[in-house]
Amino acid sequence: MKITEVEARPFKIPLKTPLKWGLTGYMEAAEHVLVRVHTDSGVVGVAEATPRPTIYGESQASILYAIRNWFAPMIVGLDPNHTEKIWAKLEGIRWNPTAKGAIDLALYDAVAKAKGVPLWEMLGGHSDRLPIGWMLGIRSIPEMIQEALDIRSKGIKAFKVKVGLDPAKDIQVIQSLREHLGPDVLIYADANMAYSVSTAIRTIKKMEEYGLAFVEEPVPAWDWKGRLKVAQAISIPIMGDESVFTPQDVAREIDLGAIGVISIKTPRTGYTLSMKIMHLAEMAGIPCLMGTQGETGVGTLASAQFGASRRNVSYPSEISFFLALKDDLLAEPISLQDGIIDLPRRPGNGAILDEEKIKKYRMD
After folding, report:
1. CATH number of the domain within which 255 lies
2. What is the per-residue pLDDT across 233-255, written as a single tens digit (0 to 9) for each?
3. Is 348 contained in some domain?
4. What angle do helix axes 224-233 and 247-256 make, rounded to 10 degrees?
5. Is 2 a catalytic site residue?
6. Same domain, 97 and 183
């Protein structure tokens, strides 16, 4: 089996409600790139690239350019099974993580389809089901509480709460969520690196009183000394995200000793690098969850396949963003019952695309 074409198509699907996070994060629509790897056997692998200019410096336009002009010419003619060889070629161009990640995910999808097995089996086979949580963006407290109650009524029992702009309000949000959701719901916070060290320590200690499970990136990722100070001052784990983009980052953070949970995001590390991150985490005794990059159903299935396949994904994963979109590219919706994704039994990542919706939402 040989790669014959790498197709990249931009699309845009609006959100039901705009999402705000951190100091600069704001999103009204999923403006992503659909990636399809075609092969000479007729098998086509599918994935989704998620540009986040404020995080990775990638845009929809830059992803399209990188795939069409750099990466596709590098890998056409190669065997999609040879992911290490292909990744070595992709590394010839610096950064562009989600462009590379999408290609890698599509390659694995094609290989699993050719083998006739679902990806969760090929990637480890731990399970074909994955519990998920919900991300609460920064809004007024009553709006955040009502959103949480609405989502809880659908069976979801874990909530990631965006904080970082107003420490006093942040504490009040966590307190109110705990009071309304009860003691059995998992609640954790994501400051998106917006706190100073002293503010993080003071604020998180107050949040701990209301059963906060862990906190994601309380201080800037570059401030490793500050992150260690926070970790030593609080009694709950810090979850790494912006500080653990690559396997090399993960190795550094494990040596530092500041993080206790790792967010793995397959859109930026594909399966090839995600597996390396997972192995590092397992060896260090650090649990993981699948973090969200605001994927549609296409990217959600790709992440869920990896998360379900690995036993070290021990917290509910954040990949429920597809529920916040007004539509999707999938012809068959994701099966979600009581907060658990039930993965399709078909080979590959399970995504069946609706070509009419692709035509409707494509931007070229």
Report:
1. 3.20.20.120
2. 999 999 999 999 999 999 999 99
3. no
4. 50
5. no
6. no
Whether 95 is covered by a domain: the verdict is: yes
**pLDDT of 364:** 83
What one-character-per-residue DSSP string does 26-41 give?
EEEEEEEEEEEEEETT
pLDDT at 26: 80
Q: Report whether 297 contacts 333 (CB < 8 A).
A: yes
Cα dihedral sign, 108-112-117-118: positive
Helix/strand/coil for 216 = strand
Identify whether residues 212 and 326 lie together within a single domain.
yes
> At residue 278, does pLDDT exceed 90?
yes
Residue 350 belongs to some domain of the structure: no
Question: 81-98 pLDDT, tens per residue?
Answer: 999 999 999 999 999 999
- Active-site annotation holds for 265: yes
Using a pLDDT cut of 70, give the percent of the chain over it.
100
Active-site annotation holder among 265, 357, 359, 360: 265
Domain CATH for 75: 3.30.390.10
Question: One of 100, 157, 160, 162 is an active-site residue; which one?
Answer: 162
Token readout for 321 is: 């963003």
In a domain, 347, yes or no: no
> What's 23's DSSP letter?
T
Task: Kindly indicate the confidence band of residue 51, based on its pLDDT and cuts at 50, 70 and 90.
Answer: very high
What does pTM read for this prediction?
0.95
Candidates 329, 311, 22; CA nearest to 163 is: 22
Residue numbers of the domain that contains 257? 121-342
Structural domain count, the chain? 2
Residues 258 and 152 in one domain: yes
Residue where the block lists tokens 């609460």: 136
Contacts for 142 with CB less than 8 Å, ≥ 6 apart:
none
DSSP bridge partners of 27:
19
CA atoms in the 13 A half-sphere facing the CB of 223: 16
State whether 44 and 167 are in the same domain.
no
Q: pLDDT at residue 18 above 90?
A: no
